[in-house]
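User: Structure please.
Assistant: Input sequence and predicted structure:
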Amino acid sequence: MDAGIFKPLKNKAYRSLFGAQVFSDLGNWLDFIAIQVIVAYHWGLGEAAIASVIIIMGIPWVIIGPLASVFVDRLPQKTLMITCLLFRVLFVAGMFFAPNLYVMLLFVFLKATVAALYDPARQSAIRHTVSEEELPEAVTLSQLSVNTMKIVGPALGGGLIALYGVRSPFVFEAVGFLIAVVILMSLPKIETESSSKKQQGNSYLEDLTEGIKHIFSARILKAAIILSSIAFFIIFLYDGLFVFVAQNLGFGEEEFGLLVSSVGFGSVVGALLLGRFTSWKTKPIHLMASASVMSGILILFIGLGVYGLFELPKFLWLAGAFLLGIMASAEAVPYGYVLQSETPKNIMGRVSSAAASLQTFSMLVAPAAGAMLAKWIGVSGVLTGAGIATFFLGTIALAINLRKNVEATSIGA
């Protein structure tokens, strides 16, 4: 493996897809802080308004994405992705000029809707342009972009607000989407199987249910989606409480960013390692489950620290957060590989949309549940419970995987 993780970038089509994704991912996170600052500081609105923004961002992924995914598989992917990016520029302009929360929510919803169409099209395009041998590296690079921009986007957004004003990130975001459009223009025509599907005359409902039926029939894919969705739910139980975790561990407000960045940096390093050493591709569920076990132990350990059972120097808490980030990649990268490798090319859009819908639903429900639990059992109680649940999730998944030997039959390697 001479080029390691960067091997797929020799492929011109994938290079265009990846280049566009970097700017698209950056755009997704650039406005994250700007919206919250406008809502909380400029309009003086409270937690309910911020929560409504998060919920509105998630609804299209849960409902509209899966329903529209049939058309993602039928339409030319290059044209669809470019159209989605151009609409995002338009909707970001609407956010820039939004005079109140209701107008802002409208454009947040519209932007999230086209993002929920763009991502399945991108997933499908990867499947059509990358060979089976380079799929692990291609998926890892894709995950690396997501993880890196989750760190770079909010940090850059905060810097732009300080330099040019609260609405400036929207301008840079729109420029980023336009750069992504220019990069996608160089994408060669993607040959898909959609034309043959059309000739068969399948109805919309038949095409819609085909993706869902495939998930239930592909054992390893079903296992990966269920495992990742439950893991997402557990993560987002405590994710919104992380600022209180930092306080209880003795981190000041200026140090809170360090803790969050440590998780993000860990996830980037984890993705790089998985891209370099791809032997896990023969046992992706095994890796996901093992990472869940390790994450559970780390989260439980942090929860006990928040409870006050012991104290550690800050650098050790930062090291724990870094390891948590590595474990997050050890779950996310194999999941992305399973999604790609276990799904036929012609239904990639529908399958990825259905999976994203389930995961986003978990992410939307969990924060409210976490906040309620925190009132009853405290932040340390939520963290400790999440750690135990994550540990047992991984243990049960490992046991089932070993007993059924799911991967041996599904991924012949």
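The chain has two domains: 1-201, 213-413.
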